[in-house]
């Protein structure tokens, strides 16, 4: 399964960006979006360290809410409160 995570661009340096999502920051390549003109404050979908698509803030927030809901239904890592 492939998964892309929406992140907000915090800083841009050439084809690299510092992105954040839910308190986690990552360095992300913007190489695949070099013709898109992404900027600080934009939201992008990040897959294996690459921004692959620009998304609207509302879509990013909806994805985060869905991920939170999924994680809330998962058993604890130790196999469940036994």
Q: Report the helical percentage.
A: 10-25%
The CATH level-2 architecture is identified as: Roll
Give the distance, in angstroms, between the N- and C-terminal Cα atoms: 29 Å
User: Could you list the spans in which at least 5 consecutive residues all have pLDDT below 50?
Assistant: none
Main sheet: strand order: 3-2-1-4-5
Oligomeric status of the shown chains?
single chain
Shape: elongated
Number of helices: 1
H/E order of the elements?
EEEEEH
CATH class: Mainly Beta
What is the average per-residue confidence, as pLDDT, rounded to a whole number? Answer: 91
The CATH topology? SH3 type barrels
Radius of gyration: 15 Å
**What would you call the structural class?**
alpha+beta
Query: How many domains is the backbone divided into?
Result: 1
Structure description:
The protein is of the alpha+beta class. It has one domain (5-73): SH3 type barrels. Helices cover 21% and strands 39% of the residues. It has one helix and five strands; from the N terminus they run βββββα. The protein has one helix spanning 57-73; strands spanning 5-13, 16-21, 24-29, 43-47, 50-55. Strands 3-2-1-4-5 form a five-stranded antiparallel sheet, with helices on one face. Strand 4 and strand 5 (50-55) form a beta hairpin. The mean pLDDT is 91.
Q: What's a concise summary of this model?
A:
The protein has one helix at about 55-75; strands spanning about 5-15, 15-20, 25-30, 45, 50-55.
């Amino acid at each position: 399964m492939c998964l892309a995570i929406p992140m907000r661009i915090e800083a841009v340096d050439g084809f690299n960006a510092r992105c954040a999502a839910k308190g986690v920051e990552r360095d992300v390549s913007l190489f695949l979006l070099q013709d898109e003109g992404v900027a600080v404050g934009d939201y992008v979908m990040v897959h294996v360290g690459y921004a692959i698509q620009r998304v609207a803030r509302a879509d990013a927030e909806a994805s985060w809410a869905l991920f939170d809901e999924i994680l809330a239904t998962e058993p604890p890592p130790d196999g469940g409160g036994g």
